[in-house]
Amino acid sequence: MKYTQAKWEREDEHLYEPLLSEKDGKEIAVNSSLPDELTRDSLELPDLSEPELARHYTRLSQMNYGIDSGPYPLGSCTMKYNPKFTEDVAALPGASIHPDRPEESVQGTLELMYGLQDYLARIGGMDAVSLQPPAGAAGEFTGILVAKAFHEANGEGDRRTEIIVPDSAHGTNPASAALGGYDVVELPSAEDGRVDLEALDAAVGETTALFMLTNPNTLGLFERDIERIAEIVHEAGGLLYYDGANLNALLGRARPGDMGFDIMHYNVHKTFATPHGGGGPGAGPVGVAEKLAEFLPAPRVKKMNGTYERFDPERTIGKVHGFAGNWLVLVKAYAYIARLGDEGLSDASAKAVLNANYLASQIEYDVPHGPFHHEFVASAGDQDAADVAKRMLDYGVHPPTTKWPEIVSEALMTEPTEIENCETLDQLAEAFNAVATEDDETLEAAPQRTTARRIDQASAARNLRLSWQALSE
Ligand SMILES: *Cc1c(COP(=O)(O)O)cnc(C)c1O
């Protein structure tokens, strides 16, 4: 036996001998079913000891910043702590079951779907829910197709060609509307950052199919006139759509359905566990008022004589995703809601709102508008918001969402979420306030203390390298 620095070889015996034979002077695996040109004749694995390998992966794991490293106040995208128990529940062997199994053998799965439909309907004040759409944006698109089916069924499909969205709306709102074949009408916000009732009154009419709104809106401001807004839209024969990305400000306290919204999506990955940063899977169930229930995507789940059954709503728009949607994300949402209960959910929204207002009061950047709900939008003033974000990384915190919504110049859209304690909020405020005093040169050179320095974003987009390649000598 011969030992080299980090590996051992047995000279007396070839471990793989039974599987290898000789071809063109090279050893090849005889039982390989791969075509010759696809088989390797060498594999250059690095020659490493266990501690070297462990240190390598530990170092890699520390090069990124995540919610487990520190605060992550990414406004609107709500990267909050996602309790680990929801991952445990989703990892249970019974949680993922073949979707084609007969109904009588998957009663537990169907019960969970039924239960989640019910939880979400009650939380949103909606009459019926479909769990199918795989993201918030997909929920919007589904909701728009449901609205379209409704107007068509009323013989108004040809006439109602417009969807109105406020200028503070998330980009997916106008995109979903356009994808649904609608003309997008942008509604300018009033001075106070809310819906301008006069402008809305002038914009709605017999061509209006839908008004899409989120409440509190993307500035974190509650639309106090929501009942009047609903009246204006409904009087014109339009429907009111609720973008549920900000639902964590209302949980257990107020319900979109009670405000007059007819359709909504839930970003369960922003409100009920599942981290969605990095483009991971999410789910965007859609809830509707009674009059729209028959158009929801199929299948839904109902309970008949003690058993759970899938069914297709009478005039369903069809399927919008395979099987039950992004199933394990839904399992996590169910687990989260069941664990927190009514009290836990309303406690979460109270803390989300308290934390946003506390942080807004502690930072020196100008924060127009307010008081806020779960998030606020500060202005970086003369500084470039993107540079502020890069510099905040040097202070060991994740920056807020920047440059959006565009109605606040150099926007720093900040959402501390309900999970942070006062000490962490103060740490965030200190980072904001330190950066606020710095000059452009310092900001433009940031970040200095991160593993990767500032990347060339244009090249990153234009010269894509999608696979790993060893550097050539
Ligand atoms: C995140 C977000 C969306 C889109 O949701 P996805 O799940 O990311 O597709 C829509 N509207 C608002 C206000 C959002 O913050």
**Would you tell me the overall average pLDDT?**
90
Number of strands: 16
Indicate the low-confidence ranges by residue numbers.
1-19
- Sheet with the most strands, sense and barrel status: 7 strands, mixed
Number of helices: 14
User: Can you give the helix content as a percent range?
Assistant: 25-40%
* CATH superfamily descriptor of the largest domain: Type I PLP-dependent aspartate aminotransferase-like (Major domain)
Number of domains: 3
Identify the CATH architecture of the largest domain.
3-Layer(aba) Sandwich
The fraction of residues assigned to DSSP E strands is 5-15%
Q: Write out the strand line-up for the largest beta sheet, numbering strands in chain order.
A: 5-11-10-9-8-6-7
| Cα gyration radius (Å) | 27 Å
CATH structural fold name of the largest domain: Aspartate Aminotransferase, domain 2
Bound chemical compounds: pyridoxal-5'-phosphate
What class, by secondary structure content? alpha/beta
Q: H/E order of the elements?
A: EEEEHHHEHEHEHEHEHEHEEEHEHEEHHH
